[in-house]
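User:
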Amino acid sequence: DGANMTAKAIAVRQQLVDPDNRLHGSEQAREALYAIGAAYHTIAADGLAAEWYLRFARSHPAAPQAPVAASNAVVLLLATGEVEPALKAARSFRHTYGTTQPRWDAQIQLALAQHHASSGSSTGTAHAIALLERSRVAFAEHATGDVRLQAQLLLAQLYDDAERGDEAATAWLMLRQAASDLDTLRKDLAATGEPRRQRARRLRSAKEAISVALLQHADRLRSQVVVAPPSYARAHSPSDVAAYVNEEIGSWLAGRTQAIEAAAAAYHAVVELDGGRPSPAHALVAGAAVGGMWAELVTAAATASHPPTWELPGVIATSDPPVA
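Assistant: Predicted structure:
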């Protein structure tokens, strides 16, 4: 399978970089260093991927793929909890490349913001927001599409946590709008020169960010659906019952149906993301939410309030007037 093929490819490339084979100074060996890191990255062996990425970047800092390797290493070290080595690698990146690699520096800034935010503290949230806001231009103008969208997602979530509603709404809206421009995203990722599997991973990450925003919008619309039908507060004559059913229940039913259809359309956007190639997990959540709304409507209508006399033994509720 794919994992076995990757393992075999890694083993072959490790032969090229082994000094005992006297090939470690060759161009093929240089390329193998990066390829081993990328292969480990593909199979989510993050610690090993970071190790080989750093080994490549430090051995060949002027190589075209060295900045992305060094940047990836910082991200992976933070992801595995190796904070001090990650910070050291981040400082080394800045020392080596300065401001000449804004694309890959933006990826590091996102990883650092995610690290601050993961603390769950108000201080961590404040640090993460400050870092993301300070890097806003870099994300917009230089970052790869997945990094830009993940940064936007994190900022929207942090604004929500900090109760900065207007800024959160703007951030969520910008994410949703990105759903219509995935072709540009693909071209942007192709320009990175990374292996195909790495680009596919970045595309999935970008689509996840957009999908979260689409779900957030749909969930907000769902929360606005009035759940409970109006209580019966009239007299018990047939005309009162008819007015309750036709006016109060009818109005509630029409309004709730309209609200459900609006929320369902928003959930449908999740399923139709990227021409019907959505995040599978989010598509399931969206489908379950739509079914749940209609099921709640049926349950609410079936349990709607009715005249107390209908509860009397032997009363036929559907007759007009009710008879015993």
